[in-house]
Write a structure and sequence with these properties.
The complex is a heterodimer of chains A (about 220) and B (about 450).
Chain A (H helix, E strand, L loop, with lengths): L1 E5 L3 H13 L3 E5 L2 H10 L4 E5 L1 E2 L2 E2 H10 L6 E5 L4 H9 L4 E4 L4 H14 L8 E3 L2 E4 L4 E4 L2 E3 L3 H11 L5 E2 L1 H8 L10 H12 L5 E6 L3 E6 L1
Parallel strand pairs in A: 1-2, 1-3, 3-6, 6-7
Antiparallel strand pairs in A: 4-5, 8-9, 9-10, 10-11, 12-14, 13-14
Helix pairs in contact in A: 6-8
Chain B lengths: L10 H50 E4 L2 E4 L4 H4 L9 E7 L2 E5 L15 E7 L2 E13 L4 E11 L1 H48 L18 H49 L3 H34 L5 E4 H18 L3 E6 L4 E4 L1 H18 L5 E7 L5 E5 L32 H11 L3 E6 L5 E6 L1
Parallel strand pairs in B: 9-11
Antiparallel strand pairs in B: 1-2, 3-4, 3-7, 5-6, 6-7, 8-10, 11-12, 12-14, 13-14
Helix pairs in contact in B: 1-3, 4-5, 5-8, 6-7, 7-8
Classes of the chains: A alpha/beta (about 220), B alpha+beta (about 450).
């Protein structure tokens, strides 16, 4: 997906961009409202991540102008404020959602997906592999044209694996992505989800292979 | 800031009582003065008739061959007749001897000149008014002094005085009653601007700290001026502290966000277990401190707002539904299902921002303690009181600590490993209490916690 990040703190922007690119997203970075307008006019973005306190103005004014210009690119506000009233006013101004800094990257991804789903923007980034069709935004999986319902964690696991077929994912990498930092579970919990995913993919042309001591790999027959 | 005001006396009562008291004193004074004046005039009337009577008798006295003859006309005494049949006494003296009349009258003292002397004497317990005059009669070779005293009881005078007194009393009472009515009117007119000022300030919203603009009487100007100055200072300091809170949050959270994002990105790149553990611990610590900072600021805001509730009609069901939409992406990450039930709409009166904050904290708590792939049931009920029940399938509250969990910074024994500040339940309870409601924590029979937030 293609993101526009409007954030004046260079360090934070670098960190967010680095993290996003790791997941294969394209990120443009603007550190001023002026630049943000320039970017949003020319680029075709799936989502805008907007900081509120910017050097040349309030992010809310960007939001308002953005909406007045009848642009429907979804906007998720990154706020460092905690007051609820502030959040409410941002939603009133046309933000689709907000996350409070510091935010969990997985949570931001989940919110992006939810916003895109609400905007009926499904169909982006659909992956078709053999008899499998996977829409990460809608969270839908069809095998041989038959819809299969996945739980959220199964879905995120599949998304990780299907984006890089043939690549070996160590158990701990998958664990770090799937479980939040305060969940008190062992890394072996990942086996449960691998097992479920295997059952869902029973009739698919995809196989999840366990490589003892190394991790898991998705293979396409 | 409650309604405790050190009240001592009432301006209205004091003003009314002062006016009525003044009127009472004035009424009595007017009564005494008028009565005294009327008595004096009436007495003068009686005195002048007595004097006329005396002088008409003296005029009739002649000296014939050394003997005094007094042949006074009947009218001399009949002019004294009254409605009350006052008794009349007379006595005529030649030199010092009684010539004619009643000897019960006191003898005249040395009378000088032609002046008539009036005095009130006591005759067998009755007060009588007596006029005495003397005249020197000169014959061929004799001269003698004739003095005449006429006395009259004062029945008619008393009757007149009583009648006048009664009228004066009626007049005085009327005057007094009128003054009482006037003093109530005057008091309420005087108090009205004060009341108007109090009303205009009471009716204000909690955020309205603008100066009082309406016209006020001269005497209230210093009060209103200092009130305006006070509100100005309060407004400035509130704005400053709000800006300060926002700025503080920004300053604290932005670097934390940088550290967290870097840590997350780095975590994806390292493979050694001890490095991963260290990074995970770092992220947890960041979450812990940012959450604590956030809730401290929320708590400060709630403490402030609880004193100035901005009440409005709030649909609790709609509010819960919106919150659930916001929180669903987070819930889904743990495959937790947020299930809301309730009838059409549950309308309550309250501060929307506070209520939303409290409910968010309660749902947040339920999310944190729920196991993956479980359900959180949120039920919104209107009767008997608007209330919201949040049930989860987590471990429940520790039974022996359940009463202390709403204390600031207290966390249950089972909270270890879960990120929290110990302020969430305190915030929810403070909000409930600010609205006159309660927060009840209990454990469900089949396991799981139940938080009931009722207004």
């Amino acid at each position: 997906m293609k993101f526009l990040l409007v954030e004046d703190n260079a360090e934070l922007a670098n960190a967010i961009c680095a993290r996003m690119r790791m997941d294969g997203h394209v990120v443009d970075h603007a550190d001023r409202i002026q630049d943000a307008f320039a970017f949003s006019e020319t680029g075709d973005y799936d989502l805008i991540l907007l900081d509120i306190m910017l050097p040349d103005g309030d992010g809310r004014s960007f939001l308002k102008q953005h909406r007045d210009g009848r642009k429907d690119t979804p906007v998720i506000v990154l706020t460092a404020r905690s007051q609820v009233s502030d959040r409410i006013s941002m939603l009133d101004l046309g933000a689709d959602d907000y996350v409070t800094k510091p935010f969990d990257h997985e949570e931001l991804q989940a919110r992006c997906r939810a916003v895109l789903r609400r905007k009926a923007g499904t169909g982006q980034g659909v992956i078709e592999l053999g008899n499998v069709r996977f829409d990460p935004v809608a969270g839908s999986l069809t095998v041989d044209g038959k819809a299969i319902t996945l739980r959220n964690r199964e879905l995120r696991l599949l998304e990780l694996l299907i984006n890089a077929p043939g690549q070996i994912f160590p158990k701990h990498k998958l664990f770090d992505r799937l479980f939040s930092y305060d969940e008190d579970v062992s890394e072996n919990a990942i086996e449960v989800y691998i097992g479920r995913l295997r059952r869902h993919l029973e009739h698919a042309s995809l196989r999840i292979t366990t490589l003892r001591g190394l991790g898991y790999r998705l293979d396409h027959e | 800031m409650s309604d405790t005001v050190n009240v001592s006396g009432s301006l209205r009562t004091r003003l009314t009582l002062t006016l009525i008291g003044g009127a009472a004193v004035l009424t009595v004074l007017v009564f005494v003065v008028i009565r005294g004046y009327v008595a004096q005039i009436a007495q003068q009337g009686q005195d002048s008739i007595l004097a006329a009577s005396v002088s008409s008798i003296l005029d009739a006295a002649i000296l014939r061959e050394g003997a005094v003859e007094v042949d006074f006309p009947y009218a001399s005494l009949s002019m004294l007749s009254t409605d009350a049949d006052d008794r009349v006494f007379y006595a005529i003296y030649q030199d010092d001897g009684l010539l004619s009349g009643y000897d019960i009258l006191p003898e005249p003292t040395a009378v000088s000149g032609a002046a008539t002397v009036h005095r009130t004497v006591d005759l067998d317990g009755t007060a009588i008014r007596m006029a005495t005059a003397a005249r020197t009669l000169i014959g061929a070779d004799t001269r003698t002094i004739v003095s005449v005293s006429i006395a009259q009881t004062q029945e008619a005078l008393a009757v007149t005085l009583n009648r006048i007194s009664r009228n004066v009393v009626i007049f005085g009472a009327g005057f007094f009653l009128l003054t009482v009515v006037l003093s109530f009117w005057a008091t309420s007119t005087t108090i009205r601007p004060l009341r108007r000022l109090a009303n205009s300030i009471t009716r204000r919203g909690p955020d309205d700290l603008s100066p009082v603009a309406g016209p006020v009487p001269n005497e209230m100007a210093p009060l209103v001026a200092s009130l305006n100055r006070l509100m100005g200072r309060l407004d400035t300091s509130l704005k400053q502290s709000e800006d300060f809170i926002a700025e503080a949050a920004h300053r604290v959270r932005t670097p934390l966000a940088t550290v967290r994002s870097h840590a997350e990105a780095t975590l994806q790149r390292v493979d050694r277990d001890e490095n991963r553990m260290a990074l995970r611990a770092m992220i947890r610590a960041i979450d812990e401190s940012s959450r604590a900072a956030g809730q401290l600021l929320d708590h400060a805001m709630i403490t402030f707002r609880a004193d100035h509730l901005e009440r409005e009609q709030v649909d609790l069901l709609e509010m819960v539904r919106e919150l659930v939409i916001r929180m669903t992406p987070v819930a889904q990450m743990k495959d937790i299902n947020l299930h809301v039930t309730g009838v059409d709409s549950v309308v309550a009166t309250g501060d929307a921002i506070l209520l939303q904050n409290a409910l968010r904290n309660l749902i947040d708590n339920a999310l944190k303690y729920s196991p993956p792939e479980s359900e959180i049931a949120i039920q919104v009920m209107a009767h008997p009181k608007p209330r919201i029940e949040i049930r989860d399938q987590g471990p429940g509250f520790p039974p022996d600590e359940i009463d202390d969990l709403t204390t600031r910074f207290s966390r249950g024994d089972n909270a270890r490993g879960i990120i929290g500040s110990g302020l969430g339940l305190t915030i929810a309870q403070d909000v409930a209490e600010a609205h006159g409601g309660t927060l009840t924590l209990s454990n469900l029979p089949g396991g799981g916690a139940c938080a009931t937030f009722s207004l």
